[in-house]
Design goal:
The complex is a heterotrimer of chains A (176), B (96) and C (151). With 96 residues, chain B is mainly α. Helices cover 76% and strands 0% of the residues of chain B. In chain B, helix 2 (20-33) packs across helix 3. Chain C has helices at residues 2-10, 13-29, 37-59, 82-93, 97-107, 113-120, 124-146. The longest helix of chain C is centred in the first third of the chain and has 23 residues, at 37-59. Chain C folds into 2 domains: 1-64, no CATH class; 81-151, Arc Repressor Mutant, subunit A (Orthogonal Bundle), CATH 1.10.10. The chains are: A alpha+beta (176), B mainly alpha (96), C mainly alpha (151).
Chain lengths: 176, 96, 151
């Protein structure tokens, strides 16, 4: 009995570290030839990646700082040859998994939708999901663990895209 | 390449170290990295070390490239989301 | 690679293992500065070469002094002449330090003279002339030792 409980303790973190959403839902749904990028960095692989970050590079140093509470980073990005090659209903199925998450951004039009969701635990953020559905590009991002959206906001400037501005502030307000 | 040089290549071919070399290297890394209390990092550092081989090296570097890509993409998508929110707010203010 | 460079240079298993350990530990210390696989390989190779040369100077190993009985590291059975290979290995070990390493990097690692020059920090011309001289010495010594076996 004691041994079983001990092994269960080892297993639980592995389960807890898994993705929050069914990222691979689209793997079998997208047409052949769809340009697909997959990143699955959890646990040891994430720590291993962090080891190789060069902190004398400001960008890499910031990424290293971001990773403090992060337990996993998962990305699925699909680039389609033409519009209409995936179903928005399938995207909604992914969103349906996010009950209990706080939608920080939820913008929708006929052809595209963007959602940013945070899993909060009291004052803490325990997860981030981004669902970006555009006519020829579908991106799902799940960051598991504690992350400060403001830190990502800092990085957005570094990567040469507009500063996140209000988005980070919204995340802060959600926590208050 | 001459026969003599081929002979040299054979004579100087790569040798395998004893199997426990890896264990000893890992132990050394653990001994150097470990403070008074146990830490996760020596095991991770040891794993990092093991992956750095002639053919390997890459696992950690590939993971790093994936990490940088993932963070960049996430930041970019958050930026897009921000831009849409800003645009909607602007339109709403325009209507009011 | 790392262990092999050290072993072929030092012909001593314990010393070769020490050099290999040091090279990997050095890599571990500098991991954050490593930018690519090729960089890691180059770094490891460079550290192994220089550590082996330093160790060779320190212990002043000579091929004439007791290398005959040095056991070879374990390896899979291969076609070829093990006695000839062992003899060649010992003759290489008898070359002066830098020439020995140049031969090892050329024939174990398949490096071009420019790459060898980069690792050793010496001119390419020096590498080429050292290699040429080393091969000439090895052929002569081999011929003397084996008297026509190579023909």
């Amino acid at each position: 009995m004691i041994n079983r409980v001990w092994w269960a303790g080892l297993l639980l973190p592995a389960v807890a570290l898994a993705q929050d959403i069914p990222l691979d839902l689209f793997a079998s749904l997208v047409p052949k030839g769809t340009e697909t990028v997959e990143v699955s960095l959890g646990g040891t692989m994430l720590q291993l990646a962090a080891q190789f970050l060069n902190t004398s590079d400001p960008q890499q140093a910031k990424v290293k700082g971001l990773l403090g509470g992060v337990k996993g980073i998962y990305v699925r990005s699909y680039t389609f040859k033409k519009p209409g090659e995936y179903s928005m209903a399938d995207v909604d199925r992914v969103r349906a998994q996010l009950k209990g998450w706080s939608p920080v951004v939820n913008v929708r039009s006929a052809e595209e939708s963007t959602g940013v969701y945070l899993k909060t635990n009291g004052q803490k953020i325990d997860g981030l999901v981004v669902v970006s559905a555009e006519p020829t590009e579908l991106t799902l991002v799940n960051i598991v663990g504690s992350i400060r959206v403001e830190d990502l906001k800092d990085l957005s400037g570094q990567f040469g895209i507009p500063n996140l501005g209000d988005l980070g502030d919204k995340a802060s307000k959600k926590r208050e | 390449m001459t026969d003599f040089e081929s002979g040299l290549k054979d004579a100087l071919r790569r040798r395998e170290p004893r199997r426990d070399l890896t264990d000893r290297v890992m132990a050394q890394i653990g001994a150097r990295a470990m403070p008074a209390r146990r830490s996760f990092w020596p095991a991770v550092a040891a794993v990092a070390l093991l992956t750095v081989t002639v053919a390997g090296a890459g696992e950690g570097l590939r993971a790093k490239r994936q990490l940088m890509f993932a963070v960049e993409l996430t930041s970019r998508k958050l930026g897009v989301a921000q831009a849409k929110v800003t645009e909607l707010s602007r339109r709403r203010i325009g209507r009011d | 690679m790392v262990y092999s460079i050290a072993w072929n240079y030092l012909r001593n298993q314990a010393l070769a293992e020490e050099v290999a350990q040091e090279a990997f530990l050095e890599l571990h210390r500098r991991m954050a500065q490593i930018e690519s696989e090729a960089h890691a390989v180059h770094f490891l190779r460079r550290v192994a070469v220089h550590r082996a040369i330093d160790e060779g100077r320190r212990t002043r190993l000579q091929s004439r002094m007791g290398l005959e009985g040095v056991p070879e590291p374990a390896e899979r059975p291969r076609a070829g002449d093990p006695m000839l290979e062992a003899a060649l290995g010992r003759l290489v070990a008898g070359l002066p330090g830098r020439a020995r390493m140049i031969v090892i990097l050329r024939y174990q690692e398949d490096l071009e003279p420019t790459e060898i020059a980069l690792i050793l920090g010496i001119p390419v011309g020096t590498v080429k002339s050292s290699l040429h001289r080393a091969l000439s010495v090895l052929r002569k010594r081999m011929a003397r030792k084996w008297k026509g076996v190579l023909q």
